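Field: COMPLEX_INPUT
Field: COMPONENT_COUNT = two
Field: RESIDUE_TOTAL = 449
Field: MODE = joint
Values follow.
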Amino acid sequence: MNAKAPHMDDGISSGLSRIRARFIAGMHEQSTRLETLKLRLHDAPDDDDALREVGQIAHKIAGTAATLGFQDLGALASQIDDSIHRLVETNARINPDIVQMIDSFHSRTRQVAAIELDG
Amino acid sequence: MKTMKILAVDDDPIILDLLTEVLRAAGFMNLHLCLSGSEALELIEKEQVPFDCLLLDIQMPDMDGIELMSKIRRIPGYGSTPILMITAMADRKYIDRAFTAGASDYITKPFEIGEIHARLNAFEKLTLDRHQLQDRNPVSQQGPQRSVASEEELAECLALPGIDGFIEYLALENYLLRMSRLSLYGMSVFGVVVPEMTRLFAASSVYEFRFAVTDIAEAIFDSLKTEHFLAAHAGGGTFVCVLTGGTQFDAEGFEALLRDTIREMDLHFCDGRPMILNPAVGEPISLHLQSPRNAANTLVQALSRAQSAANAPRGRVDTSRSSLKQLFGF
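Field: COMPLEX_OUTPUT
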């Protein structure tokens, strides 16, 4: 799957393209880690460490994805970051909606990791 | 090329790369990067030339950005350095914590490139203005015996670090701007003016003036300390206060309380003359439903109301304990 870089000022477009490539390359490791965490949560929904780590990954991606042209990934990451943050603060249990969101998030990171970059 | 020396701290290398590209595109080439709070503190201590501006993430392992900022503010020379929090934490409580701890401004990730440029250009102008003010009024050459504070010095908005709740005026403007995009529900602003300040201190040293401003700020803090608030000195012995806790505010009662507090401080000039200060407190302005464009303007409006109160003095009111309870709507 090819994806175009977002429109940017000429002055910084080449630098941002390099960072975008680095971000895409990093998605492979993130999606692999998310797969592991997702499986842990399916087996043990009360695995707080796994949930927190998903939140940390989502928080990082939420902070950069949109700036690098991945608005939908950034929005999803932000939603998961907020939801997990609230769960942790209120000591609530993980629910099917959050599980669904994490599944979607994982799928999207895999898609981004599979992006072929233009020359 | 812009000369401002900048330090950016974030545990995410991608963010540091982004900031490098964005800042260099805007001409800010003197940029230093750190991946943690402890690394940043080491670098700050080591550098001979202080940083002019800092960009800090909030959520970092070991030491978060707010703790880092509190430590930086205590380093000599960094009390007023512009600090921009760049963070994905957009909740009101994080914004409150950041500004209370000393942030000059706050932007959320993912950041808009134009917004970062605008903030840093504003900080650079502020830094240049301060350097020019110091050049025109060099403290090192004159010492405590300097005879007269300049008009510029009397008009300067003082930072007042060390007094809980007090932040820089520019930071308070930015706080209202950021909060207006979330919610200003339950918040109000009021102004305090001391009408005699400029006249009283026209023949005083800058140190004496600054001590008096600090004393008034401490009196405001003492009178407000049961409330959640942020306040700033707005220059020339005027102050603005933002109440964030949703309680009702009685300007007339607070004015009487503040005057009593200052009277009890028994202030004097260096030459032994008593310092008689009678602050006037303006009617509060509710911030609920204010647009972002108007939110910062309410500080000016609050000062205008305080000036009106100074021009048309109120009658005295009882400041017994029962009336103090009524003061804040209990």
